[in-house]
Amino acid sequence: MTVVTESMPAADLKPSARHLIADESFQGAVRLVRRANPEVDETLAERIVDEALKFVATAAGNKTPGLALRPSRIVDEGWHALIQDTRTYKRLADELGVFVHHVPETPATKKHDEVTVIRTLSAIERAGFVPDLYLWTREAQAEVRVSADCMHSECTDGGSNCAAPHIV
C-alpha cells in the first residue's frame, strides 16, 4: 500500500504518539490488548496502541465536515483498550481538546475498505505522524487475529460527521 499525500516533510513527521498519554497508561492499554488477544505479543500490542493514539489524535484534529475516518480492525482493538480505561481516555480527550466518540457500525463495515484506509492514512500523515502501514493492510487483517471485528467510525463534535447512519 502506498500513501501519497500533500503532507509535511518526512523529517517533521513523528513516528510515535506515545507522548500523548503517560507511560503507565500506555502500558495499561497494552496489557488490555494482550488480555483480549493472547496471541498478540508485547511488541505488536505496543504498535497497536501507538497506532490507535495516532488515529484518535488525527480524528480529534479533523475539521473537514463529512470526512469520516476509520481505524483498521487491528487499530480499532487499540482504540478499544484506550476507551476501557476511562480516566486515560478522558485525559487524552482533554489533551487533544476534543472527545472522539467511538461509533459502532453495522456488520457491513467488516470488509476492508481500501479507500477509507487510504483517506485515514493520509489524514494521519497530515496530522504529523508516520503511520504503521502494516497494521492497515489486508495482509495484516488476515494474519493478526484480534477481538475487534470491524472498522468503526469516529465522530467528533464540530469535526467529522459520522459515516454511519444514526440508529434510533
Per-chain topology:
Blueprint: H1 23-36, H2 42-61, H3 73-84, H4 86-96, E1 101-103, H5 114-126, H6 138-143, E2 153-155
Antiparallel strand pairs: 1-2
The succession of helices and strands, N to C, reads: HHHHEHHE
Name the beta content range. Answer: under 5%
Judged by helices, strands and strand pairing, the structural class is mainly alpha
State the helical fraction: 40-55%
Distance, first to last CA: 37 Å
Count of DSSP H/I helices: 6
- Low-confidence stretches are 1-5, 156-168
Question: What is the molecular shape?
Answer: globular
What order do the strands of the largest sheet run in, or round the barrel if closed? Answer: 1-2
- What Rg, in angstroms, do the CA atoms define? 15 Å
How many beta-strand runs?
2
Summed over residues and divided by their number, the pLDDT gives a mean of: 81
Largest sheet: 2 strands, antiparallel
Plain-language structure description:
- This protein has helices spanning 23-36, 42-61, 73-84, 86-96, 114-126, 138-143, and strands spanning 101-103, 153-155.
- The protein has 168 residues and is mainly alpha-helical.
- Strands 1-2 form a two-stranded antiparallel ribbon.
- Helix 1 (23-36) packs across helix 3 (73-84), helix 2 crosses helix 3 and helix 2 packs across helix 5 (114-126).
- The longest helix is centred in the N-terminal third of the chain and has 20 residues, at 42-61.
